[in-house]
Amino acid sequence: MDVSGGSGQPRSGSEEPAEHHAGRAAPAADPARPGPAPSGDTHPEPARREPGGPASAGSAPEGAPAGDGVPAGAEDRRGEPSGNGEPSGTNRPDPAGGFPGADAPPAGHGPGDRTPAPSPHATAGPERERGENTGRATEGTDGTDGRPGHAPGGDTTRPAPAVAPGPPPQRPPEPGGGLLMGRPFGVPVYVAPSWFLVAALITWVFGGQLDRVLPELGAARYLVSLFFAVAFYASVLVHELAHTLAALRFKLPVRRIQLQFFGGVSEIEKEAETPGREFVLAFVGPLLSLVLAGVFYLALQTVEPGTVPGVLLAGLMISNLIVAAFNLLPGLPLDGGRMLRAVVWKITGKPMTGTVAAAWVGRALAVSVLIGLPLLTQSGALGSDAVDNVGMDTVMDALLAAILAAIIWTGAGNSLRMARLREHLPDLRARTLTRRAVPVESDTPLSEALRRANAAGARALVVVDAEGSPLSIVREAAIVGVPEHRRPWVAVSGLAQDLTDGMRVSAELAGEELLDVLRATPATEYLVVEETGAIYGVLSAADVERAFVKAMARPSA
Questions:
Q1: Could you list the residue ranges that cross the membrane (predicted)?
Q2: Which of 152, 425, 545, 547 is the most exposed place for a label (fewest CB within 10 A)?
């Protein structure tokens, strides 16, 4: 079952949407929210580094003031009234307290520094261009009269768009998993490359048996053996289709079916909602294998024994019985393990308890297979003479047992990890992970946009039109690539990625539903909106990944 995750810095504070204004947005007297810029030729104080505040502004052109940065500690002054009667800085203060596009003070400097250390990448999340956040910094205006966009010497040319930062992130191709054989019931069926290896092995082994039973076939026995290998895996496909149909019946999405070295896998993307459905979902596969064994047995009664059809039907009957019996063993990741999980879930009311029980039974089963299978073959309990089971046969039996045990042990561990992931997925909420954003118009210089963001305690920029409707998101990776001395003459429009429908995320999404939306449209940033369509902020894939890793590191309840 596939789930994806990500990392990031969750935000604290109340969950009131970030405000934006129509027209040319600029900072107001309230430093905690965006507003109109100071008019006239007043020279603001140079930015200062304070405990918990951002770094000072970058270099400015010759003759320009040191910077217009406003200390970003304003968002920490909770409860102070602002100009409109609302508390200043209590909307959704960001833990980092500034925009992560420039230099940052070292971690741990000042009481307001709450930037966590970088964490490893998670495997289930959307791809992103940059896997790190560079902290927080203040970008001052670099104009000669306190207004951004003024070149030295009084040249008042408007800022030019930046050099194109590269094409926007493209959606990666959907992983196939082998050779596509078809789409029964709309679910793709793939044959993994390892299947050809096991088909050759079955052809060789079954061909040797045919040589003893039907020596008159000669070299044609290998054609018959190849037909048996294909027919056997067709039976495995029917087994997997039973799981798939049950999942679709319960409204559970199935990503694909894959035939591989040791059988097949139906990749069901969501968990059954009740233990009863989980039991049915697991039981239908072995049940259909038993039905197929019965069908082959009935067909065997209509042919002569010792003939090619008789040998093929007998082999298919026995192989389906073995598949059903093996899958009914009560340990994950086998079907019997899922049935045991459903029973424990029903008794305790806790799906995680059922998973833990079935997974540990699966691990015990793996050890039993590793030790017991070679002993059984050596003792002749599997139908062969114990005297003959020496030399190469012993090595092959031990190798087969080791492979089976490794598959069962690994599958049990993966089941535990997936259960822990699903248990912690509800902790991933778009509303709590979203960065506060500042709306800016397309021709706003990057230095001015960063100054407004730091003044408001925001860490994201959204490009809006004259009516305040969002058009694009300024990408963090593109901001980092612009040198500080160029930022007063680079317009934010040159660093922005146009919004698509998939990049608009509801603030109410959480857990697996949130990850499904992010997987559907891979990007580095997403616009988070309220149900009314108002801008709430920007969700970074990096933040989701880090929160995912953090949640997975916590012990299960």
A1: 187-206, 226-248, 279-300, 312-334, 355-375, 395-412
A2: 152
In DSSP notation, 120-188 reads PPPSSS---S-------B------TTSSTTPPTTS--PPPEEPPP--PPPPPPPPP--SEEEE-GGG--
Q: Decide if 93 contacts 75 (C-beta within 8 A).
A: yes
CA 152 vs. chain centroid, Å, equals 48
Q: Rounded to whole angstroms, what are the CA distances from 225 to 193, 228, 294, 324, 548?
A: 19, 5, 21, 22, 49
Burial bucket for residue 42 (CB in 10 Å: 0-12, 13-18, 19+): exposed
Contacts of 71 (CB under 8 A, 6+ apart): 31, 47, 48, 50, 53, 54, 138
On whether the CB atoms of residues 91 and 32 are closer than 8 A, the answer is: yes
Judge contact between 430 and 409, C-beta under 8 A: no
The answer to whether 279 and 304 have CB atoms below 8 angstroms apart is no
pLDDT in tens, 253-294: 999 999 988 789 999 988 899 999 999 999 999 999 999 999
Q: Are 375 and 389 in contact (CB under 8 A)?
A: no
Under 8 Å between Cβ of 329 and 337:
yes
CB 535 within 8 A of CB 529: yes
Condensed to tens digits (0 to 9), the pLDDT of residues 496-553 reads 999 988 899 999 999 888 988 898 889 999 999 999 989 999 999 999 989 888 877 7
Q: What is the gyration radius of the CA atoms in the chain, in angstroms?
A: 32
